[in-house]
Amino acid sequence: MVVGLAPAAGFLPPATLDRYLGQSAPLSCETHRVAVSPGDRIILCSDGVTCALDTTDLAALSVAQPSPLGFAQALIHVANVRGGRDNATAIVIDFFSEAIPPSA
């Protein structure tokens, strides 16, 4: 199931760094807790990927590339083929063991 890109859309303009190592202000990290089940796949990617691919592309590539490494490489390849206007970074995490509920 593809959740969608909406949670990432609209926060900052593309290519904007709002937190980075070495910044003068204290570094704060954004965290989210989600429940995962066997078979779930989490994709963390930069706007270089999300600006080049939509949820239909993500779903098709996910099916065509069942390995996390192959899927991440395909995401970056397609983003680059479609113009590569920004850096394309992708991390793919597949869950294969028993369900892990979010902690309180």
Mean pLDDT: 80
| SSE-based structural type | alpha+beta
Major pleated sheet: 2 strands, antiparallel
Side by side, the strands of the main sheet go: 1-2
Secondary structure: helix percent: 25-40%
Q: Give the percentage of residues in beta strands.
A: 5-15%
The helix-strand sequence is EHHHE
Oligomeric state of the chains present here: single chain
Topology of this protein?
Blueprint: E1 41-45, H1 47-50, H2 55-64, H3 68-81, E2 90-94
Antiparallel strand pairs: 1-2
How would you portray this structure in words?
The protein is of the alpha+beta class and 104 residues long. The chain has a domain of 66 residues. Helix content is 27%, strand content 10%. It contains three helices and two strands, in the order E-H-H-H-E. Strands 1-2 form a two-stranded antiparallel ribbon. The longest helix has 14 residues. The radius of gyration is 15 Å and the shape is flat. The protein starts with 40 loop residues before the first strand and ends in a 10-residue tail after the last strand.
Annotation keywords:
single chain, 104 residues, alpha+beta, two-stranded antiparallel ribbon, flat
Provide a compact summary of the structure:
The chain is of the alpha+beta class and 104 residues long. Helices cover 27% and strands 10% of the residues. It has a domain at 29-94.
